[in-house]
Amino acid sequence: MAMDTSLNRTAVNAEVAPVRPGEFSPLLLGPLSVWPPMVLAPMAGVTDSPFRTVCRDFAAAGVSPNSPHVPGIFVNQMITARGLVEGHEKTLKLAEFAPGESPRSMQLYGTDPSYLAKAVELLVAQEHVDHIDLNFGCPVPKVTRHGGGGALPFRRPLFARVIGAVVEAAAGRVPITVKFRMGIDDDHLTHLDAGRIAEDQGAAAVALHARTVEQLYGGEARWAAIAELKEHVTTIPVLGNGDIWEAHDAIRMLRATGADGVVVGRGCLGRPWLFEQIARLFEGGELGAQPSLGDVVATMRRHARLACDWTGSERALRAFRKHATWYLTGFPVGGAVRDRVHRVDSLDGLDAIVAELDPDLRLPVDALRTPRSHKGGPKPVALPPGWLDDPDCDLALSEEADAVTSGG
Length: 408
Known about the structure:
Strands 3-4-5-6-7-8-9-10 form an 8-stranded parallel β-barrel, surrounded by 6 helices. A two-stranded antiparallel ribbon has the order 1-2. Helix 6 packs parallel to helix 7. It has helices at about 50-60, 80-85, 90-95, 115-125, 140-145, 155-170, 190-200, 225-230, 245-255, 275-280, 295-310, 315-330, 335-340, 345-355, and strands at about 25-30, 30-35, 40, 75-80, 105-110, 130-135, 175-180, 205-210, 240, 260-265. By secondary structure, the protein is of the alpha/beta class. The chain has 2 domains: about 20-290, TIM Barrel (Alpha-Beta Barrel), CATH 3.20.20.70; about 295-360.
């Protein structure tokens, strides 16, 4: 099935008309009123507590301090339901939130309704979360080859049972949202069925990454699919995800699709101030100048210190190196600096590297849409044998489907 991609084609840094008062509404997720209606996409190995803190603070800076709304939802990385239920040490650490973090939002992964229900009952009983998102969009082969992630919505009965079990376990105490892709490939699109099933099972909202599993992260997100989903899901909010590289993209997506909110993924990597820029546009303001390299370095250093504080060790900088690389993406700092960043192992070492940079440098306009992190695709999808034979097959999946490690 060919689908129009013209909705989201744009020139670099293309501006949009200012947001009119009342043009968009707060995103309502159970008791949560979210304004601006923006969500940090859960990303494995990325959206940990330090990164969420940085993003949240930028978002709050873009709205009125007296706002009665939550200035965005910032979702923890993927946590496996089985890991939570069985008390795996790594899973429990990844599931932690910063003191005072609110609302506490977590994405759960699982394929077994009973494991997911037990995990939700545990989280709700401990008042550990304020929002739970279900992961049905992961395209990683080790997930899809067992029928999980982006493969699972193809099996409609199991998809319905999983969502229904989680909604029942939550018992209305926290909103449950569902994130999925367009389908396995263009010959096996599932987003309309998935949206209706989630709606029927009591989900508070659905979010569509407008790519197929086969696409991975390649090509353009097809915003027309978000508009199509919005026409079919009418009683709960529909969120759009894909190719939000600049603040104006968020406004353009909502105007083009009629979606109720925007999910920001790779666009904020190395650029967490994107949430402040988006917030300012939703508030009817102007984008303003892009940050200088000096501003970027200040954010990078704060992020690095938060990471070390969170783990209690400068060993956190090994995982932080990818963030440091993303912060510098597009700036003409030279290969030698990038190589040193790839090997940084101390806060003092990071400070020494960035002290040599020109703080007045500005990011070239044509670098604003440079992808960070995942770039691959298309690629054939790894699936269980016979997976595509019958979308109404209601067989349970193998135990391996729930054995995926949290955070990856």
